[in-house]
Amino acid sequence: MPDITAGTARFRFDRGARGPDRTAFYARPVELAALLDRIADDVAPEIGRGAVADYIPALARVEPWRFGMAVAEVDGAVHGVGDWERPFSVQSMSKVFTLALALSRGDSVWARVGREPSGDPFNSLVQLEHEDGIPRNPFINAGALVVTDELARHGDAADALLAFLRRESGRQEIAVDLEVAASEAGHADRNRALAYFMASYGNMRHPVPSVLDQYVRQCSIAMSCADVARSALFLARHGVRNDGSRLLGLSAAKRINAVMLTCGTYDAAGEFAYRVGLPGKSGVGGGIVAIVPGRCAVCVWSPGLDARGNSVAGVAALDRFTTLTGWSIF
Amino acid sequence: MPDITAGTARFRFDRGARGPDRTAFYARPVELAALLDRIADDVAPEIGRGAVADYIPALARVEPWRFGMAVAEVDGAVHGVGDWERPFSVQSMSKVFTLALALSRGDSVWARVGREPSGDPFNSLVQLEHEDGIPRNPFINAGALVVTDELARHGDAADALLAFLRRESGRQEIAVDLEVAASEAGHADRNRALAYFMASYGNMRHPVPSVLDQYVRQCSIAMSCADVARSALFLARHGVRNDGSRLLGLSAAKRINAVMLTCGTYDAAGEFAYRVGLPGKSGVGGGIVAIVPGRCAVCVWSPGLDARGNSVAGVAALDRFTTLTGWSIF
Amino acid sequence: MPDITAGTARFRFDRGARGPDRTAFYARPVELAALLDRIADDVAPEIGRGAVADYIPALARVEPWRFGMAVAEVDGAVHGVGDWERPFSVQSMSKVFTLALALSRGDSVWARVGREPSGDPFNSLVQLEHEDGIPRNPFINAGALVVTDELARHGDAADALLAFLRRESGRQEIAVDLEVAASEAGHADRNRALAYFMASYGNMRHPVPSVLDQYVRQCSIAMSCADVARSALFLARHGVRNDGSRLLGLSAAKRINAVMLTCGTYDAAGEFAYRVGLPGKSGVGGGIVAIVPGRCAVCVWSPGLDARGNSVAGVAALDRFTTLTGWSIF
Amino acid sequence: MPDITAGTARFRFDRGARGPDRTAFYARPVELAALLDRIADDVAPEIGRGAVADYIPALARVEPWRFGMAVAEVDGAVHGVGDWERPFSVQSMSKVFTLALALSRGDSVWARVGREPSGDPFNSLVQLEHEDGIPRNPFINAGALVVTDELARHGDAADALLAFLRRESGRQEIAVDLEVAASEAGHADRNRALAYFMASYGNMRHPVPSVLDQYVRQCSIAMSCADVARSALFLARHGVRNDGSRLLGLSAAKRINAVMLTCGTYDAAGEFAYRVGLPGKSGVGGGIVAIVPGRCAVCVWSPGLDARGNSVAGVAALDRFTTLTGWSIF
C-alpha cells in the first residue's frame, strides 16, 4: 500500500472573471486537506475491492490498490491525497469534456442524442434500436460517439479535447496513452457495431473508422486526479474557464451538470444521486469526477470497479465527502 | 380565462426548529409575489395546451385553462398566483408523501423497491418482469404500490397520509375526492395487474384489493397548490416539519430529493432535470411539486399534459421560475 | 421403478366418417406396441431427470419416476406402455382442446389473440405490453385466458371442456382434480396479473375472477395418456371426432396443428420442431401431446421437466418415436 | 400486365437414387400446370399490392406487377406460370442453401446459432444482446452471417453457393447481380453492425469485411423461380441432390425444413405456418421458396411486400396452392 497523505497546490484563477457566490459552511483550504486525509483513512477498507477492468490488457495491468483524490476549488486552490498526481486512463470521464466542447459550438448535438437515463447498461444496442438510432444520452457509448462525430465537424475531436485539457489543467504533458489506445482499437468491435448501427439510421456524419479512431484516442488520455479536477472546474463555475473566459453559458453549464446527475454513472445514476448527491461521471479506468456547483470539482481514482462499472472506493470516498461537508446538491 | 393575480399568505413556522441557512440572492417575499405574476404572464400561451387526462371521467371534466402556482418559503411565507388555492387531484404527487411517511418508519422499504430511473413509461410491467418483481423506484406505480403496502403495516395508508397533509397544510378540509376515487377504482385494472404481478414474486404483504383501495384513495386526495407546497416544505428543510419537529433525518430527506430528481417525472426525468434543474414530482391531475433545498417548496398546477404525462404549463412555469431566480440545484 | 410393459386397447371409431388415407410404411398395430416397449427402454435413463414442477404443492408431490406413453391411431386402436392409463394433471395441454372448442364456435378468437411464437417465456407480460394486450398466441397463458374468456360466452368453459374430453375418451370418470385446482387458485397471482392487464386493454369480456376460475379448473383436469391421445385424435383426422362427426373444418384443424408446431412447447418450439418434427403441446404436469396428421395422436408423460418446462423423458420419447417411425411431418 | 400462362419443363432426375414415396391424391403433371394457371388467376388481384423493397436503388427498380411461380417435382418435372423463368434477386432465400451447405460439412454451426423463432424483426440487435451474441436462428440476418462465416472456413462462401446452385439448377448462367451487390454493399451498415456486435462476443471467425462481402454477394444472386425450385428439391427429397447423390442425411434435411417452418418468414412464421402450412423461406426480392416434403419444391415471386417483408402475392399463391392440393404438412 502506498503512503497516502494529503497535500495542497494552488493554481491561478483569474478573479477578474465573475465567479459564483461561495458561502462555505464547512471547509477552509487547510480543512479540506485534513478532510481528504480523513476520507482516505475511512475508505481504506474499500481500496482494492471490486474488479479492475480487464477487457483490454493495457487497463488490466493497473495496480488495484491505487487510490487518489483531488479537490479543485473555484478560486484555484487544489488539494489532494494519495495518488492524486499520478496519471490514469480517463476513459468515459472524457465524455463530459467532449460534450462541453460540442455545446460550446452550439446546440445541434441535441438533435442527435437524448437526455434521458438509459435504464440499460452503458453500451446497449437495445435502446438504440427501440429509438431509431438516437442514443438516450451523451454519456452512454453510443451517445458519446455521436458527440465525437459532431465535434469532428470542426477538426479532430481528440486533438481538440487534448488542447482543452492541457490548457485548463496547465499541464502540457497530458497525452493519449498510445498503448491503451492501440489496445482499445483492437477491442472496439462493440463500439464499431454501435457506430455502424447509428450510421444505418443516418445518425453518423463522418466515416465510422475515423469517428472511432478519435473516440478511442479521447478515452485513452491519461490524466491525474488533480488534472481532471482542474479541467472540470468550469462546471463548478457555471461555464467559466480557468482563465476567466466563458466556455459555456450559465444554462448550458448547469444542464451538463443535470445530465451528469441523471446519466453519469451508467445504470447506477439513481443510486449515485441517492448516495452521493452530486453530478458525477465515472470511467472504467476507475476515475470519477464530481461537481459541487459554486464550490469545487472533485476527482477520485481507484481502479477496482463494482458490477456496474463504477469505482468501489471512488463512490465510497465521494459518499464520505458529501456526508462530511454537507455539500450535496439536495 | 380566470383573473390571475398573485397573493401572499403566511403561516406559522416554529423558528425554534433549526432551519437551514438561507442566502437568497434574488427574491424577498414581495419580489416572489411579483415574480409569480410575471411567470403567469410568461406562460399564458402554454396554459390550456396539451391533453387533460381522460382515462377516468372525473379527471376528464377538469377545466383545461386552469393555472395556479404557489411558493412556500422555509420560514413560512406562502405566495401564490392564479388558481393557487383551488383544490385539484394530486394523483402521483401523493407518492412523495407516502414515501416520506414510509421512510419515517425505517428503511425497510428499500429492500422492496429500487432507486433507479425506469427508462420505461410509468406503469410498465416490462421492467418488473426483468427484475423479478422489484420495481425500479418508488415513483412509478408499481413502486408506489409497494410503498403503500409497506405503510399499511402501521394502519390504513391513505388515512395516515391525510392526517399528515392536514397537519402540514393546516387545512382540515383536505379530503379524498370520493367521485375521483370511485372512478379510479373502476379503472384500476392495470394497477391491479401490477400488484398481482408483484404478489406473484412475493413482493406484496397485504391482500391486493386492500392495498389497491388505499392506493386509489391516496391518489384521489384533492389539494390546492398552497396546500401541496406547505406540505412539502419538510423536503426543503431537510426533514423538519412545519411544527419544528423532525419527520426524517437529514440524509433521508436529501435522498428523497435525489429520487425525485432522477425519477419524479416519469420517463422525462432527464429532460426535467435539464430544463428545470430541481427535484420534482408530477401527477396526471396536472400538478407538479418541486423543491429548492434550503429555500422553498413550489407547487404548480395546470391540467393540460404533454405526451409523457407532465403538465405543459407547469413545466414551463418551473422552467421560468428557475431561470428567473437562478435557483436550480446545478 | 414400475414395470413398464406395453399393451394395446381398442375403442370404437365410426368408420362411416371419412378418415384420411393411411399409407403406413412402418408400423402395424402389433409393431406399435413393440415400438413403445423399445422407446420405453431407450429413454429409461432420462426418466426421473429434470425437476418436477413445484410451484404448487399438489403438483410437487407427483412421483418423478413415472413414465407412460400412448398412441391412438385414427382407426381407433390405442397402444400404450408404462403408466399410460394413470391419470396426471394435464395443465397446459388443455389449451389445445379449449382452442379447438372455441374455434368450433367460429373465428372470433383470432381477433383477440395472435398466432406467432412468443420468443419469451410462457407467462411473459413483456410481450403483452409491447403489443397492447393482444397475446402472441393461444398457447401462452395470456392467450389461453383469452380463449377461455371467449369460450365462456357459451357457458362455463371448464364444464364444456370436461364434456368434450369425456365423450372423446369414452371415460366419464375424467374430472377436475379439486386439490390441484385449489392449489392452483391459491398460486394464480401471475395469471391474475395477466388477466387484469388484458382487461386494462379491453381484451377481457367476463370478470377476471370468473375467467380465472374456469381456467384453473381446465388446467387441473386429470387424464391418462390414453385419454389424452384419444381425445386429440380429431387433430390427426383433420377435424373429425371419434363419433365420426366433424368438430372443425379441414383448414381449422390443420391450423391448430400449425399453431402447435410453432408455439406448442413454450420457448422451445423451434427446438421441438427440429428434434421431434411433430405438432405438440406440453404441460408442466409432464405431459406432451403430439399429432401425426393422418395417422395418430400420441401422448407421453413423465414429470421431470427441463429448464423450459417440457418433460425431459417425454421429449426424448417423442424424438425416438419419430426417428424410429420416420413419421415427422418434414 | 404480362401474359401469364403456365408451362411445363422436365429435367433429369437420376432415378437410381432412392426417392421418397409419392402418393399424390391430387395432381398429376398435367394437372399441376393447370393448377398453376388457376392460382395465377386467383391471385391476380394481389399482384402489385404491397411495397417493393426500396432500401437499395437496384431493388427498387423492379417492376411491381411481376409474378411467377414454379413447381419442381421430386421426379424432375418442373411446371411454371407467368415470369417463372425470369431471374430476380434471391436475397434471403439464399440463407436456406448456405445453411444446407454448412450442415453438409458438419454440425458445428449449431454451436454458434440457435433454432428458435426470433419474435423480433429479422435484423434485430435486441435479441443478440439478450443472448450474448448467439443469433436466434440461421434465417435472421445475424444468423446467416454466422453461417457464412462458418462456410468461409472452406473457401469463399458465395462461390461455393454459386457452384451448388448452378449444378442443381443446371443453369451455368446463374450469377451475382453485380449492380445489386454494389448497392447492397453501400447500404450494409446494419449488417455490419450485427457482424461487429457478434465479433465483440467472439462469434465471428473471419474479419467482418470479408464475411460481409461474401454475404452480400450471396444475397445478390439472381435466379428464376424455376432455378430456385430445382435447387431446393434436395429438401423435398430429404437430402438427395438432383444427381442422386446425398447432400445431407435424412435428419439434417428434415431439420432444415423444421427451421424453415418456424423461422423462415421473419416474424410472420406463425402466420405463414397457419395459412400456408409448408416450410418456406422468403426474401425481400419478393421470392418465397416452399417445400412439400416427399413431393415437390415450389418457388413463387412477386415483388410487392407486406409489412413483414414477405411477398403479398407470393403468400397468397402458396395459400391457394396448399388449399387446392391439400398438400400442407399438417
Automatic annotation (TrEMBL), chains A, B, C, D:
Organism: Amycolatopsis bullii
Family note: Belongs to the glutaminase family.
Residues that, per the record, bind substrate: 92, 141, 184, 191, 215, 266, 284
Enzyme Commission number(s) of this protein: 3.5.1.2
Keywords per UniProt: Acetylation, Hydrolase
EC top class, as a word: hydrolase
Subunit structure: Homotetramer.
InterPro entries membership: Beta-lactam/transpept-like, Glutaminase
Classification via PANTHER family: GLUTAMINASE
NCBIfam families named among the record's database cross-references: Gln_ase, PRK00971.1-1, PRK00971.1-2
Pfam families (UniProt xref): Glutaminase
Reaction equation(s) it catalyzes: L-glutamine + H2O = L-glutamate + NH4(+)
This protein's name: Glutaminase
Domain of life: Bacteria
